[in-house]
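Look at one record.

>
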Amino acid sequence: MRVAVDIGPLHGRRTGIGSAVEHTIGALSAQADVALTPYLVSFRASPAPGEVRLPLPAMVALRLWAAGDRPRADRWMGGVDLVHGTNYTVPPTSIPSVVSVYDCWFLEHDSLASPDVRRAGRVLRRAVRRGAWVHTSSEATATRVRDLLDTDRVRSVHLGPLPADPAPASVPERCADLTGRPFVLAIGTSERRKRHPWLVELAPRLPDECHLVIAGAPGDDAAALAAAHAALPASVASRVHLLGSVDAATKAWLLGAASVLAYPSMDEGFGFPVLEANEVGVPVVASRVGSIPEVAGAAALLVDRDDADGFAAAMSRVLADEALAGSLITAGRDNLGRFSWDATAQGLVALYERALGSVG
């Protein structure tokens, strides 16, 4: 089976989707019955040997494909059997297609999305109307995609866990003030759906000795996050650390030293941080939304999405109750056994076969 696979997410700043695509491609490459042709739509990235670059700038391609089905990608794909768009969009083509959709936030909150993201949504809808199959990383997202995109050509295939980076030999300089202190950690780009400002507003309800650490690249909620921090009383603000982007070693130290991982998202299509916390033995408190209950299983203390009192109480409870924290850590280690990248690859191959078998 010859599959063209979008490697665009591997270029530029690495995101959760980029990590998902990296490990998915690695697992697919190990499948004996799959031959991959990597492709990308970018004039900025430099393709490696064997990679196909569609001769269109990404922004131009989005504008064209949001409005119509030209130019088709067939001429550049080199006779592949199937095209897999790994990041919400897939080019117009007569070749059978699969497109990965990780969450539905931008489809349900169009007014909050950037113009480029809204165009990507239109490209996605056009692809589904042409007959593309949709891969989701959770059944929760699959259920919503069926309704939002009005299609039954949807299959859920879980992702695998991200491998843990080794902890650094010494404490990163930016984390020196956290040494020996209990802290709650939140990881992720400061996007609205991650709800980091809401978490900062809960900081006064944490125990006096507990710190709150938020690590992740600036996103569309960065200004609100800074404002929430500035509004805290000085005595609390000194215990809230907005680290912004961190390197792999700093992230590994934070995960290894955290007392609790907080995951207050308003929506998630999978939730790598839950599995990352499971892997290093950190208890999780999370919102009961989207895919989080499906991925976390019994390995997280779940709270209704808008229950601020409940979320603050859950974090404090885990911090104070060693038995509860220990039970969540044990459940997390058991939970990891449900996920693997080999299973992801096998599930995608089955989806590819379904898409090819449905042609005509």
In short: The CA atoms of residues 95 and 352 lie 12 Å apart. The chain has two domains: 2-160+340-357, 173-336. Residues 2-160+340-357 form a domain with the Rossmann fold fold (CATH 3.40.50.2000). The radius of gyration is 21 Å.
